[in-house]
Specification:
With about 170 residues, the protein is an all-alpha fold. The protein has helices spanning about 1-20, 25-35, 40-55, 60-70, 80-95, 100-110, 115-130, 135-150. The protein has one domain: Tetratricopeptide repeat domain (Serine Threonine Protein Phosphatase 5, Tetratricopeptide repeat, Alpha Horseshoe), CATH 1.25.40. The longest helix has 19 residues, at about 1-20.
């Protein structure tokens, strides 16, 4: 019950923030993450898109949107081509050193059926996660890499959120 009340409070506060200041990219990003955590992916996508309208170079917005476009449980929301584009842009902005970006890029390639590229991106992200002592992301990457090795994309469950941030 406490978590539900906190979610509702946070949702209300972020909605107020974006109403008061519609160009507040961080508030849109936080709202998108909160919505994605609760499985409200269509709303999350809208707010990630708003982040990128406000700040086209926002790496976290690119990762979040790419992730949902690549892994959404509802295929009608998936857009592998756009997900690859966003993840590549984020990868360039981070000089290829962010494992969460690599994870999103791998998922996007897998969504497009480009499994050799998904494996390469996933393995690079896994190496970065190990180097940065990000065990949670490394564990998640290992599981997704196994899917890509089997020629299967990753589709998140309805209540799953964007990849773990470093």
């Amino acid at each position: 019950m406490q978590r539900k009340r906190r979610f509702d409070e946070a949702l209300t506060e972020y909605r107020k923030a974006v109403e008061i200041k519609p160009v507040f990219a961080q508030a849109h990003y936080n709202l998108a993450n909160l919505l994605a955590d609760r499985g409200r992916m269509d709303e999350a996508i809208t707010h990630y898109q708003k982040v990128l309208e406000i700040d086209p170079r926002n790496v976290n917005g690119k990762i979040g949107l790419a992730w949902l476009l690549a892994t959404h449980s509802d295929g009608s929301f998936r857009n592998a081509t756009r997900a690859i584009e966003l993840a590549r842009q984020a990868d360039e902005l981070t000089d290829g050193k962010n494992p969460a970006v690599g994870d999103a890029l791998a998922a996007a390639y897998a969504a497009a059926g480009r499994f050799p590229e998904a494996l390469a991106a996933g393995r690079k992200a896994l190496e970065l996660a190990w180097q940065q002592n990000n065990q949670a992301l490394a564990d998640a990457l290992r599981a997704r890499i196994a899917l890509y090795e089997a020629g299967k994309p990753y589709h998140q469950p309805l209540s799953a959120s964007a990849p773990t941030k470093p």
